[in-house]
């Protein structure tokens, strides 16, 4: 049975009520220790980039098929619902806001599965090239990064349209920062 999150607040249309469904429970491919996750993450970083600290001792590697077939369809709908509700003024709902939303939704999927924290991170890059409907901005940009049983994948959090292998990601050479929390 789906569970809904109720959001109540003021909008430009007055007081409104909106709901977001909770994500499907995470399917875990395997467990990975924090030490091993750090070791697998460091080679992703170009010179000068850095990796945020890990808070947990072990993490849940995400099942790729679950990510592609269950979570992404859910997330695309949730992001569309959020876009229809959220302000687009200034930087009120831009890439870092959607990046946090994506990270929280995958975290809730882990809670629903009663698993360790999923191997999902915010990846901060310099948007030198367009990707997944977001043009070349030549400024910092936030995308989602996932470690799955099929390797590392990147997702544009503002639309969830393209899940691509990190090795094929247009801005992989401009990574500035990775944070799993």
Could you walk me through the main structural features you see in this protein, from its secondary elements to its overall organization?
The chain has 181 residues and is an alpha+beta fold. Helix content is 27%, strand content 33%. The protein has a 6-stranded mixed β-sheet, with helices on one face. The protein is globular. The chain starts with a strand and ends with a strand.
Strand content of the residues, in percent?
25-35%
Q: Major sheet: size, sense and barrel closure?
A: 6 strands, mixed
The 3D shape can be described as: globular
Helix content: 25-40%
Structural class: alpha+beta
Oligomeric state of shown chains: single chain
- The string of secondary-structure elements, in order, is EEEHEEHHEEEEEE
Could you provide a short overview of the structure?
The chain is 27% helix and 33% strand. It has 181 residues and is an alpha+beta fold.
Descriptors:
six-stranded mixed beta sheet, 3 helices, alpha+beta, 181 residues
Please give the structural blueprint.
Elements: E1 4-11, E2 14-21, E3 28-33, H1 34-41, E4 50-51, E5 58-62, H2 64-85, H3 95-113, E6 117-118, E7 120-126, E8 140-148, E9 151-155, E10 163-165, E11 175-179
Parallel strand pairs: 4-11, 5-6
Antiparallel strand pairs: 1-2, 3-5, 7-8, 7-11, 8-9, 9-10
């Amino acid at each position: 049975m789906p569970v809904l999150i109720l959001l109540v607040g003021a909008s430009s249309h007055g007081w409104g009520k909106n709901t977001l469904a909770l994500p499907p429970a995470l399917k875990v491919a395997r467990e990975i220790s924090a030490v091993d996750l750090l070791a697998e993450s460091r080679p992703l970083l170009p010179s000068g980039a850095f990796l945020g600290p890990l808070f947990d001792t072990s993490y849940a590697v995400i099942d790729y098929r679950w990510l592609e077939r269950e979570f992404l369809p859910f997330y695309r709908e949730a992001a569309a619902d959020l876009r229809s509700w959220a302000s687009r003024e200034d930087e009120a709902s831009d890439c870092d806001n959607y990046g946090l939303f994506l990270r929280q939704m995958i975290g809730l999927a882990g809670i629903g599965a009663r698993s360790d924290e999923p191997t999902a991170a915010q990846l901060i890059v310099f948007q030198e090239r367009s990707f997944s409907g977001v043009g070349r901005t030549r400024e910092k940009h936030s995308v989602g990064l996932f470690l799955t049983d099929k390797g590392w994948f990147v997702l544009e959090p503002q639309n969830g349209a393209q899940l691509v292998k990190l090795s094929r990601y247009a801005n992989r050479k401009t990574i500035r920062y990775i944070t799993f929390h």
